[in-house]
Dihydroorotase
Amino acid sequence: MTAYLIRNVCVVGGAPTDLLIRDGVVAEIGAGLTAPDATVLDATGLVALPGLVDLHTHLREPGREDAETVESGSRAAALGGYTAVCAMANTSPVADTAGVVEQVWRLGREAGLVDVQPIGAVTVGLAGERLAELGAMADSAAQVRIFSDDGHCVADPKLMRRALEYVKAFDGVVAQHAEEPRLTEGAQMHEGEVSTRLGLTGWPAVAEEAIIARDVLLAEHVGSRLHICHVSTAGSVEVLRHAKARGVKVTAEVTPHHLLLTDEKATTYDPVYKVNPPLRTAADVAALRAALAEGVIDIVATDHAPHAVEDKECEWAYARPGMLGLETALSIALDVLGPQWDLIAERMSRAPARIAGLDSHGLDPAPGVPANLTLVDPAARRVVEPAELASRSRNTPYARMTLPGRIVATFLRGEPTVLDGKAVR
Ligand SMILES: [Zn+2]
């Protein structure tokens, strides 16, 4: 194992110092370190963060390897500064058994670029009718702790209650895609002034808020952990604020795109902007930003959703919803939050690692800590070129935009996965 001596790095935005990585852990931090056997990296001007952790990634394998594989998604993640991602269950076959979650977990280990932690489905086939084998998935080699039917809402309140009760036994968490299905039938975009103008069927904010309100009450009733995926409305923030004040064990995520883009993008009819939940209004974006800063929303999660060209470059009505996110998330966070490194570390690494129960991730670099970290150049600016992304898909909403920040290096247990801004493998 190679040792790495990282010189003049600002650890979570602190004063420049040296950081020595050896045998998979951070061995030493301090000024003027020496290590004759180590590879020296000059990190002047760079910030070291604990490796980012994504609670919401679609890796598409098994089933849609044309859109993404565990390996290509892992590479995209490493290039985005991630050392761990949680892989959503809406694959084909669905990750609703111990066999499928173990397959995804094993593929992640083989790729070896990030830790891939599978999420298990709540219901068999994501059909919302009966509970999947939650216990078997928890007991499997993948040790699943997060369960989600993401892409679909667990709409049946009795099933949602049962799932919340079940996961309590192993401190699991149910991650809800909050969308009351009857209120969003045929929906194409956010319901509001722009959808009226365009004549497109709307996805009303209340369809999200009603499910979050129901589920925080259910979580309170059974005393379980609930996580809300991709919160997108100002009203949802108020429901969460109320629930947290009551002591409900609820956490919530917001995506980079919901922090930056609005429903005005739909006026382009470019399906790259079609996503579920849809892009909302500027007032929602402002409320989400404030909630993230305040902590009512706990984390940024990408909802990285690769889609093959034929599923995305077609008429708006037929396009699949979803956007790429892994390779641009840190830049969007930097754009939205500014260089608040401690806040970024909390929202993109420490808190998601805690929610997912990933003990070796989300730890600030310190002696003895697993060397899962990323080096960011905050002064760099880059133009997003879809063809240059490591993802197999091209559906980024940031094409040809200039974004702040660049990931220079990422280390997974002391081994570089990214160096000089390029994937090592
Ligand atoms: Zn979702």
Notes: Residues 154 and 160 are 6 Å apart (CA to CA). The pocket of zinc ion is lined by residues 150-151, 177, 229-230 (CB under 6 Å). The chain has twelve helices and 19 strands.
